[in-house]
């Protein structure tokens, strides 16, 4: 495409050179640049792309998009100064890949907890209804039945638009995508046209990045503020910020709730380890999924399906047969002792509380809840003592262990967790730094029909230690320990 055709939706300040030049690729990584490409210099949280402009030109870039013009200009290179390189990358990428979201219905899901489950259920629901669908999630990206490994909740703007273009070319008519707060703030979804957006909830998370809770809320809300009038916006009426999220949106507003009147109203009739028995609007349904938090997820999905024109009874019938996403309340039962093992991605205080509250409600008798939990390194430190306190208050026994320590000392992370447990609960926990040993210990101390919760990593197949990702799968380790226990 011609550079001038890629820029017409971008706020351009100044131009040095001709915009009537052909561009054969867009890049934000100078190492990937080849002859004929446009390099977009983005000021990231850790690295400023402007310092790589000379390298991009050396690799063959014929155009540079930047926020700060260099002092010297290279011959035969066009320089474009813009207000916001990140926003420019999104808008230019959408045009370069032939505006794929104008040809498919794109639905985004944001919130602290539930994004993956809601997006995955929507993908499964519409796929089961005969549509070819795309999925962009923390766990995996899918084009129809083809799985593409996910590296971020939301890819960068250029990768994302390339993926969406491939989805359209592959015949997808619907795409369901998680929209993280990082992706919204970093403009990775800039330029995309959404048919609908869902808000699940907002709780304490990512304050290492957003600094304040108000800033975190504002980022989420900004996405809803940007929706077009033809879109729909669905929010959780039971979250105290659910109404605020939709306050200034131009999209058509809908709410779902278990506790108050709403467009999509649910009532839990029975919640057990065999599933959820619910009233959804005026229909009685039995779902395979478990827990109040999944009741909310199911209502959000039902709402989106209704807004997208699916027959409501058909939607409920298919949803009643579906399971959620991998690593989200993913449970196994040991053969002899019937110990229930649950792997869950819960890595925030609220998510952990939701899972433990569900387990406590599902207890039939004297089963103990044994929780294995850690906190990630180089992330929000303020939630560490809170996570520990929640675990100890709502479990019979807790084992603090490593999560993804990254560049931090795992023993220090655990000490910061331990500091959150008040004196009366000190006897409830032990600390075992090695995650495999922690899971092994939890299973070995369990008795018949006890519940072992392994929280924090869910679907992840690695453990990040000192910058190296080592193979590690909570579910696989749990199953290995069940086998050992029953030999």
Structural class: alpha/beta
Largest sheet: 11 strands, mixed
The portion of residues forming beta strands comes to 15-25%
Poorly predicted segments: 205-211
Molecular shape: globular
Quick structural overview:
The protein has 16 helices and 24 strands. α10 packs antiparallel against α11 (312-319) and α15 packs across α16.
Report on this model:
With 487 residues, the chain is an alpha/beta fold. The radius of gyration is 24 Å and the shape is globular. It is 32% helix and 23% strand. It has an eleven-stranded mixed sheet, with helices on both faces. Strands 17-18-22-19-20-21 form a six-stranded mixed sheet, with helices on both faces. Strands 1-5-4-3-2 form a five-stranded mixed sheet.
Fold topology:
Blueprint: H1 3-6, E1 12-16, E2 25-27, E3 37-40, H2 53-58, E4 63-66, E5 78-82, H3 85-96, E6 105-110, H4 115-128, E7 133-136, E8 140-143, E9 146-149, H5 157-169, E10 174-178, H6 181-185, E11 196-199, H7 207-210, H8 213-225, E12 232-236, H9 242-245, E13 252-257, E14 264-272, E15 275-280, E16 283-287, H10 292-307, H11 312-319, E17 330-333, E18 340-344, H12 349-362, E19 369-373, H13 383-394, E20 397-400, H14 410-418, E21 429-431, H15 435-445, E22 451-455, E23 462-465, E24 468-471, H16 474-485
Parallel strand pairs: 2-3, 3-4, 4-5, 6-10, 6-11, 7-10, 11-12, 12-13, 13-14, 18-22, 19-20, 19-22, 20-21
Antiparallel strand pairs: 1-5, 7-8, 8-9, 14-15, 15-16, 17-18, 23-24
